[in-house]
Amino acid sequence: SVRLFKMEKQADIFYRELPKVELHAHLNGSVSFQTIEKLIARKPHLNIEHNMTAIRNGQRRTMDECFRVFKVIHQLVDTEEDIFMVAKDVVNEFAADGVKYLELRSTPREEIKTGLTKRRYVETVLEAVKQCKGDGVDIDVRFLVAIDRRNGTEVAMETVKLAEDFMLSTDGLVVGLDLSGDPTVGHGRDLLPALVRAKNCGLKLALHLSEVPSQLEETELLLTLPPDRIGHGTFLHPDVGGSQTLVDAVVKNNIPLELCLTSNVKGQTVPCYSEHHFKFWYQMGHPSVICTDDKGVFSTDLSQEYELAATTFGLSHEDVWKLSQQAIDCTFAPETLKQQLKQRWIDLRPRVFR
Ligand SMILES: CC(C)=CCNc1ncnc2c1ncn2[C@@H]1O[C@H](COP(=O)(O)O)[C@@H](O)[C@H]1O
Ligand SMILES: [Zn+2]
């Protein structure tokens, strides 16, 4: 029965060999079945089972249930050693899936019991990233420091200061800030000063926006920043209770969207794959990047997400190639790295289309 929780199918070879860019991946949501097994073995006293950390194919959960899953994973990942292992495994898994550039995001967490501090948390993730690079893993990784909206104004400001420090001291590994957490908790207006400060000091902003209905006012406010990328944006367009004004603001500022099909279907914010808002934005020619969100929790990987987008919306291999290539321009990587990535895509093309 244990086998049931592993990835239930594998994407077609074209999608696995396709070079890919992953821009929306929460570290603790990306922990694979194999890594969870190692963590459970380390902490048998917690009595945690696999079905508490992953949502299998065909299953759906309410938002609330999904966020409880993260609490369980956080119990399993609460020491420097755990974070180091998790980060290394996640980076290696994305690389094995053909991801050539990854922006990983995570919420710095303090754990009094184990002596973990927020600063050590971030340092440990970055050490794991550097070790992967040293090992020759074929992937470039950058980090976004995450603000959990639940924690309010002061924590948000502290987090920005921490991110600022790291941006200045890690020669380019920390590139920006993420705003995430349960979208039904807290309000963006309390976080605005912290986000303004982040933007002014040169941190890029990737914000979860309109992930649930009736956040019009908050979204309108946060779009004034404007953010550099939007996570989900599920309820921006008028057909689903958003507004043309919101859509116009996103289009006018040319803000790329990070779209996570399986996450939204399993988390029940979209009714089915064919009704995913990818269709709306892709048809408009708006920069749309396919991402996983939480590949561990949602039992998926980026190859599968590309394949799902292609089969659901009738994309040709050529369309899919363009989609993955255009994601390079949506990264927070410096121009030189973007150019290198574009060259890699050119070099890899014959192998993918052989
Ligand atoms: C419920 C559902 C459909 C989840 C997917 N959508 C999400 N929306 C907002 N924040 C998220 C989502 N997935 C992960 N996160 C954030 O990422 C955290 C886990 O990764 P980390 O500890 O930051 O390394 C969660 O606690 C939460 O703050
Ligand atoms: Zn997310």
TrEMBL record:
Cofactor field: Zn(2+)
Entry superkingdom: Eukaryota
MF GO annotations: adenosine deaminase activity; metal ion binding
Keyword Cell membrane: no
Stored Pfam families: A_deaminase
InterPro entries per the UniProt record, alphabetical: A_deaminase_dom (IPR001365), Ado/ade_deaminase (IPR006330), Metal_Hydrolase (IPR032466)
Entry keyword annotation includes Oxidoreductase: no
Location of the Adenosine deaminase domain: 19-344
SUPFAM superfamilies, per the entry: Metallo-dependent hydrolases
GO biological process, one term: adenosine catabolic process
Record field: catalytic activity: N(6)-methyl-AMP + H2O + H(+) = IMP + methylamine
UniProt entry keywords in alphabetical sequence: Hydrolase, Metal-binding, Nucleotide metabolism, Zinc
Self-association state and partner proteins as the record states: Monomer.
Family assignment from sequence similarity: Belongs to the metallo-dependent hydrolases superfamily. Adenosine and AMP deaminases family.
Protein name listed in UniProt: N6-Methyl-AMP deaminase
Native source species: Gadus morhua
